[in-house]
Amino acid sequence: MNRTRSEQLYQEALQHIVGGVNSPSRSFKAVGGGAPVFMKRAKGAFFWDEDDNRYIDYLAAYGPIITGHAHPHITAAITRAAENGTLYGTPTELEIRLARMLKEAIPSMDKVRFVNSGTEAVMTTIRVARAYTKRSKIIKFAGCYHGHSDLVLVAAGSGPSTLGIPDSAGVPASIAQEVITVPFNDLDALQTTLAKWGEDVAAVMVEPIVGNFGMVMPHEGFLEGLCKLTHDNGSLVIYDEVITAFRFHYGSAQTFAGLGNPEDIQPDLTALGKVIGGGLPIGAYGGRKHVMEQVAPLGPAYQAGTMAGNPASISAGIACLEVLQGEGVYEEMDRLAIKLADGLKASADRHGIPLTINRIRGSFSTHFCDHPVTNYEEAQDTDGEAFAAFFRHMLERNINLAPSKYEAWFLTTAHTEADIDATLEAADASFREMSG
Ligand code: PLP
Predict the structure, then answer these.
(1) Given 2, 180, 193, 288, which is the most exposed site by the fewest CB atoms within 10 A?
(2) Among this protein's residues, is 40 annotated catalytic?
């Protein structure tokens, strides 16, 4: 496949943009390096690159594009918003509409505040939890990604209940000392950690369904146990639902069937992003009224934003949720994802390639290994080179995946049966080459 123009643009980008990309996950470093593909247009389930190659897209911009690219209902809403002025710096009725839609779908959110990214949303939930509890330490889970603010760029120390160490240059060791990282799906480790740090712990933060070391479900009873242990300790539960909200059904993980009795798995604070902006920049956080009343102008915890609640992002978010309210929308994504995931597994088996697929409704992750993946350690213990080879073979066959073994495939409302068939054909040919 000719990708000359992408290669030229990458060389040019390297001269002006650090690393040639505006987010490290876009580089091809984790799949053998080289020029990432420069896209110039996207519509529905498809991308076109600068050399006019067409790809079926399963990246979905790392999650937000659940209705496919340039969905007409969302495009019309953005156009209308732009014609009425893109940024006011005053309250608008639109913000109330989207806040109400979020509250109706996520009952633990009595009050909402809009911000501009998932990073901001998570960062602020931590500040609010600290303000409310007047405590400072945070417990999080290994492999969960919560954006790039200092406090969550912290890796585990030498044991489950030891303090963290910086996971990025520029994060001071003093900040890492405020965070303890424990393995996902391990209530014993959480219990030990809470027992050790007790009244220092402001909050336990978790992706209730993990989306960042593949898609990983909590074990039965994990979220119930997490909420009980945390609340018994006088700490708050923060759910990072930046990926999970509106991804699997019209609602969030805290209302997703099978994860536990809804009353027993309610967080105090929730962070949102991605899908709720319909492809424009957005984040939101919310929670119990008495907790959210810590936030300025009502309370002492400060958080602000020039761009927050801008009419374009809010309009795109409303339009996106309206599409997702359509009948059978999620069921159709599930149906196609089952066909695709089952087909991939059968094809890998045929060619003798070990593959574990974690599918949760319309999204799934492909782990090149022959063991289950239920925590970060198991996700790390998979064949990154096999993934890189698969990624490159698929790209050559016009299938666009995320360039990392940890990222999910996202189905959208725009994918069709024909796209799934074409993807399975490409995968079968890729596995054949890899095994030969
Ligand atoms: N939280 C989770 C679970 C995420 O997956 C991400 C981004 O991938 C973030 C937070 C950060 O969101 P953003 O990239 O919008 O800052």
Answers:
(1) 2
(2) no
Query: Do both 273 and 357 map to the same domain?
Result: no
Query: Is 232 an active-site residue?
Result: no
Domain termination residue (choose one: 271, 303, 324): 324
CA distances to 168, 367, 408 from 384, in Å: 22, 9, 14
Q: What is the CATH number of the domain that holds 23?
A: 3.90.1150.10
Instruction: Say whether the peptide bond before residue 354 is cis (omega within 30 degrees of 0).
Output: no
Look up the CATH number of the domain holding residue 205.
3.40.640.10
Both tokens of 263, joined, read 């009353």
- Please check whether residue 269 is in contact with residue 251, taking contact to mean a CB–CB distance below 8 angstroms: no
Q: Average pLDDT by consecutive 10-residue portion of the chain (436 residues)?
A: 97 98 96 97 98 98 98 98 97 98 97 98 98 98 96 85 90 95 97 97 98 96 98 98 98 91 95 98 98 98 98 98 98 98 98 98 98 97 98 98 97 98 98 95
Q: Where in the sequence is the domain holding 253, given as residue range(s)?
A: 72-324
Report the amino acid identity of residue 410. F
Q: Which of 137, 140, 274, 405 is catalytic?
A: 274
Catalytic residue among 186, 240, 334, 419: 240
ipTM: 0.99
Q: Whose CA is nearest to atom 13 of ligand 1?
A: 118
Rounded to the nearest whole angstrom, what is the distance from the C-alpha of residue 247 to the centroid of ligand 1? 14
In terms of domains, do 21 and 122 share one? no
Are 177 and 51 part of one and the same domain? no
